[in-house]
Amino acid sequence: MNIVLINHYAGSLRHGMEYRPFYLAREWVRLGHTVRIIASAQSHIRAQAPQLHGRPRLDETIDGVSYRWIATPAYRGNGAARVVNMLAFVAHLQRHARRLAAEMAPDVVIASSTYPLDIWPAHRIARLAGARLLFELHDLWPLSPMELGGYSRWHPFIMLLQAAENYACRNACAIVSILPKVRDHLEAHGMAPHKLHIVPNGADPAEWLAEPPALSEQAGTVLAALRHEGKFIVGYAGTHGVANALDTLLDAAALVADRRVAFVLAGGGPDKPRLVQLARERGLHNVHFLDPVPKEQVPALLACFDVAYIGWQRQRLYRYGIAPNKLIDYMMAGRPILHSVEAGNDPVADARCGLTVAPQDPAAVAHGLLALFTLDPTEREAAGQRGRAYAMANLSYPVLGRRFLQACA
C-alpha cells in the first residue's frame, strides 16, 4: 500500500517528539508498504526543527520513511499564533490536494494531527486519489480545550473544531483511537459502531534491548550517591508541567518520614522552577531534581529507580481513557509503578505491575509508596517484569503497527 500520514506535529529520532507517527510508519515500511508523512516544519514539541532555508517545503527520508515538511508561520505557546499556524498548514493541504493526490497516489490517507481540522484536506486528497480515509484520534478536540481550558462551546474556534470532529466521525472509513473509552463520545457525534479501532501508544523494543549509553554526569553522580547511601529511589522522568501533578509528589515526600526513601525528578518543563523553589522552601532534603536526559539515556535512568511514579490531575476528561508514553517507558524498564490517577482505564492494574491510588491525594501517594517500599524485593521485581511482559506483548510498535493496518484494509 501507499500510505499518506498527515500529522502536523510528526517528529523523528532526529527531530524529537512527536515519535508515534515515525515508529508506526517505520513498521509499515518494514512490512513492505510505502509511507509518506506530511508535517509542518513548525512544532512546539520538537527538539529540532527541519531546516527549510526559506523553501516552501522539504522532502527527506529518515529510516526508510519519507517526510514532506511544509513551511508554516512560526509560533510559541498556545495562543492565536498557534491557531494561525494550524490554519496555514490545513490551508496548504487543501490548496494542493489535487497535486498531492496525483503525486503520491495513496491507497490510504490518514488524518492525524491532534486537532481534527486536517480531516477536510485529507478527505479531499483521498477522494481525488480513490483512497481509503482514516482519522486517528489522539486527544479529544474540542472537548480537551473546553474541559481543561474552560473554553465555551460557542467560541468560534471551538465550533470549527466540533464541525471537524463531526465530519471525521461521519466521513472517515475507519477511526483509530489512542484512547480506549471513546466509543460513546464518537458515536454521539456520528461514528458508525464498526469504524472504531483502538491502537494505544507504544514503545520500540529495540531501544530497550540495546545496551544504553552512560548517564549524563549530573544524573550519574546524583544517582550513584543515593545508591551508595542505600536509598530507596522513587523516580519520575518527564515533563514538569501542571498536568503532571508533581505538587502531589512533593506533598507526599513531606509525609514520608523514613530517611531511606529518596525522590528523584528528572526532566524539564514550565513548572520546574516553581517546583524546585517549593522543595527548597519546604526543606525537602529527600527530593532531588535532575536535568533532562537524552532519549537514548532514558533506559539507564529508569533502571536506577526502585519505583517509578506517574501522577495526574483529577479531570473528568480522563473518563475516556489514557495512554501515556511515560507509563509505557516505565513498563519497558521493568519498574514497579505507582500510578496516581482516576481514569476510564488502568494500564497498571491490567498489567499487575504496581499500585494505583487516587489522584491529587498526597496521603494516598505516600501510603502507596510505603506499601511498595515495604514489599518484598522479589515481589517488586516480579511486578516490574509483569509490566515489561505486558508492554512487549501489547504495547510494542511491531504489534501496534500491524494492529493499525487492520483499520487500513
Describe what this molecule looks like in 3D:
The chain has 409 residues and is α/β, with parallel strands linked by helices. The chain has 17 helices and 14 strands. Helix 13 packs across helix 16 (377-394). The longest helix has 18 residues, at 377-394. It starts with a strand and ends with a helix.
Task: Describe what is shown at a glance.
The chain has 409 residues and is of the alpha/beta class. It has 17 helices and 14 strands.
Give the distance, in angstroms, between the N- and C-terminal Cα atoms.
10 Å
Adjacency order of strands in the biggest sheet = 3-4-2-1-5-6-7-8
Number of strands: 14
Strand percentage: 15-25%
The biggest sheet amounts to: 8 strands, mixed
Helix/strand-derived class?
Answer: alpha/beta
What does the average pLDDT come to?
A: 95
Continuous helix count: 17
Give start-end ranges of low-pLDDT stretches.
Answer: none
Tell me the radius of gyration: 22 Å
- Principal-axis shape equals globular
Write the layout of secondary structure elements.
Blueprint: E1 2-6, H1 20-30, E2 34-40, E3 57-62, E4 65-70, H2 80-95, H3 97-104, E5 108-111, H4 119-129, E6 132-137, H5 143-149, H6 156-171, E7 174-177, H7 183-188, E8 196-198, H8 205-209, H9 217-228, E9 232-237, H10 246-255, E10 261-266, H11 272-281, E11 287-290, H12 298-302, E12 307-311, H13 325-332, E13 337-340, H14 347-351, E14 354-357, H15 362-374, H16 377-394, H17 397-408
Parallel strand pairs: 1-2, 1-5, 2-4, 5-6, 6-7, 7-8, 9-10, 9-12, 10-11, 12-13, 13-14
Antiparallel strand pairs: 3-4
Helix pairs in contact: 1-17, 2-4, 3-4, 10-15, 13-16
